Amino acid sequence: MKLDNLSTPSIILNLDALENNIKRFHGLALENNKEIWPMIKTHKSSEILKIQKDNGASGVLCGTLDECEASYKAGFENIMYAYPVSDEIAIQRIIKLSKKCNFIIRIDNFESAKLIDEKAKDENVKINYSLIINCGLNRFGIDKENTLNFLEEIKEFDNLILVGISSHPGHVYSAKVPEEVEKYVNDEVGTLKYVKKLLNSHGYNLKYISSGSTPTFLKAVKNNTINVFHPGNYVFLDAIQISLGICKEKDCALRVLASVISNPRESNFMLDAGAKCLGLDQGAHGNDSIKGHGIIIGHENALIESLSEEVGKVKDTEKKLRVGERIQIIPNHSCSTANLTNYFYAYRNNEVEKIIEVDIRGNSKKQILE
Ligand SMILES: Cc1ncc(COP(=O)(O)O)c(C=O)c1O
Question: Is the peptide bond before 215 cis (omega within 30 degrees of 0)?
Answer without folding.
Answer: no
